[in-house]
Write a structure and sequence with these properties.
This protein is of the alpha+beta class and about 325 residues long. It is about 25% helix and about 30% strand.
């Protein structure tokens, strides 16, 4: 059985070898996210002259040619002095990054469109002190400028822009320095394996909360604790008209409506349901409205539950319940 001939009688093109691709590929090219701590060693810190450094090299070459042509002893001395300063600054610029250890931290969940404050731990196990380091984050207008003294750990907080809800991986960041003279620029890339939970953007002007449904206890009769009024508070749209405190309003002369708060909790359950929204509503608009309702229900001190097509959270309240509801909305599949 013979091998298939190439079309039109052409010789097959040789495949590009992996070693050739590695040779052509620049050493600072994207290599994928990295796990654990990132130590900036000799193979990960790169350095090139800046525009000022290139101009300085041109000036040194001109000075050297002039000193040779006119046999100027002082010209030689000045040229070699400036050239040694130019070269020594390269070593100090490179050492300003080499040896640092970067460790990813964590960030609190934020709503889409906001900036997440992500904490990074920077460790300088060996001296000297590092000066004028710039951490470049994609999407940020200005770099984070930091000085790292000698010590075990130092916390750095950076602002990372967020776009869409869900898990957003950290971008590839660049740590660079031009210290001390600005003739050289040393840099190193860092792409940690870490993500930020981005919550849905709440609806700007959401519809009012849905009415609370009667619970089983309210249908079968309240317990003794529910019969004892605990406080008088302003009326909310989810309150039942039967709980209006007419005597308290007459006694206090209140212009607004007041309701009685019982010790046993509220007389109904507030369910925030996916299926209760308009049928033609966009899925992302549904998530945005449910997010607004979760925030408003928690701010009002109500007990609320969340029903999505894939999951259901029973009625509750508190910071933990609010965070759980927002997390389910952020990771909801549409």
């Amino acid at each position: 059985m013979t091998a298939a001939q190439p079309p039109f009688g052409r010789d097959p093109e040789p495949a590009e070898s992996p070693s050739l691709r590695r040779w052509i590929r620049p050493p600072w090219a994207e290599r994928g996210p990295q796990h654990g701590d990132r130590r900036l060693d000799r193979s990960s810190v790169y350095i090139l002259p800046t525009r000022a450094g290139l101009m300085m090299s041109a000036v040194l070459a001109t000075m050297l040619i002039t000193a040779v042509n006119y046999a100027l002893a002082l010209g030689y001395a000045l040229t070699f002095l400036l050239a040694s300063t130019w070269l020594v600054s390269m070593v100090h610029t490179w050492r300003n990054l080499a040896g640092l250890v970067l460790r990813p931290g964590r960030a609190e969940p934020v709503h889409a469109g906001d900036f997440a404050e992500y904490g990074i731990v920077v460790r300088n196990p060996r001296g000297p002190e590092r000066f004028a380091l710039d951490l470049m984050v994609p999407g940020s207008l200005t770099p984070a400028r930091l000085d790292i003294p000698v010590g075990p750990e130092h916390l750095l907080t950076i602002a990372i822009p967020t776009h869409t809800r869900g898990w957003q991986p950290l971008p590839r960041m660049r740590l660079q320095s031009r210290w001390p003279l600005g003739f050289w620029r040393a840099w190193a890339y860092w792409h940690p394996v870490a993500s930020i939970l981005v919550l849905p953007q709440p609806e700007p002007r959401g519809a009012p909360l849905p009415p609370a449904s009667a619970s089983a206890e309210s249908l079968q009769g309240r317990t003794s604790g529910d019969e004892d009024p605990a406080a008088i508070r302003p009326w909310r749209s989810s309150d039942s008209p039967r709980r209006l405190a007419w005597k308290a309003m007459a006694r206090l002369g209140s212009e607004g409506l007041l309701v009685t708060e019982f010790e046993g909790g509220q007389g109904g359950q507030l369910w925030l349901e996916w299926s209760g929204l308009p049928a033609g509503m966009d899925p992302e608009a549904r998530i945005s409205r449910l997010t607004r309702w979760v925030i408003e229900a928690e701010a009002a001190g109500l007990q609320y539950g969340l029903r999505l097509p894939q999951t259901e959270l029973p009625p509750d309240r508190g910071a933990a319940h609010r965070a759980a509801c927002l997390r389910e909305l952020a990771l909801a599949r549409t």
